[in-house]
Design a protein that fits this description.
Layout (H helix, E strand, L loop, with lengths): L1 H16 L13 H29 L6 E2 L5 E6 L13 E9 L5 E11 L7 H7 L7 E6 L20 E11 L5
Length: 179
């Protein structure tokens, strides 16, 4: 009897262990839906921010702002009607700029820097805005967060999803052709 039970257990183990392995199905994590939801929420927040900035621009009755197709607003402080050359890709420009929040609080004092047009990392809206300028002009840009420092801020003074203003003066343009 003991041998029969042992034989039965042994045969059961042999049959179970000889079974073909089944392929495992990949887990469904739902990442596609998660990204779609995040994208949908970001679009909603960008729409709300755009509306808020449009209202802010409309309240400023002293300055006339133009809307850029690149998602920011700008107003001329000093406009040059005689000079016709604007910076082109790879031109080296010298500029001064500051960064201010919408309440007028200074986040970063005015500073000078050189910038190789479209070849260096810089605030995305200002990369486009500089190409609108001529030597000697000063423009104030009102920039939504997604065209400035976005969902991360700058890790220092600029908060997450914070729109900013920047007053830029184009000091000089050194054309790539001159080099």
């Amino acid at each position: 009897m003991k041998h029969k039970i042992t034989f039965f257990v042994f045969m059961t183990l042999v049959m179970v262990s000889c079974k073909e392995p089944e392929a495992r199905r990949p887990k469904q994590h739902g990442t596609t839906n998660f990204y779609k939801e995040v994208l949908k929420e970001n679009k909603r927040l960008n729409t709300l921010e755009k509306k808020r900035l449009e209202e802010w621009v409309a309240k400023d009755t002293v300055k006339v702002y133009k809307s850029s197709p690149n998602g920011f607003w700008y107003t001329y402080i000093t406009k040059d009607t005689l000079n016709s050359s604007s910076p082109q890709v790879e031109d080296l420009v010298m500029l001064s700029y500051d960064i201010v929040d919408l309440n007028g609080d200074i986040l970063y004092e005015k500073r000078e820097r050189s910038y190789k047009v479209d070849k260096e990392d810089f605030i995305p809206a200002l990369q486009d805005g500089i190409k609108l300028m001529k030597k000697g002009e000063t423009i104030t840009f009102v920039i939504p967060s997604y065209r400035a420092f976005g969902v991360t801020g700058d890790g220092n003074k600029i908060a997450v999803n914070q729109p900013i203003q920047s007053t830029v003066t184009l000091i000089d343009i050194k054309s790539k052709k001159e080099e």
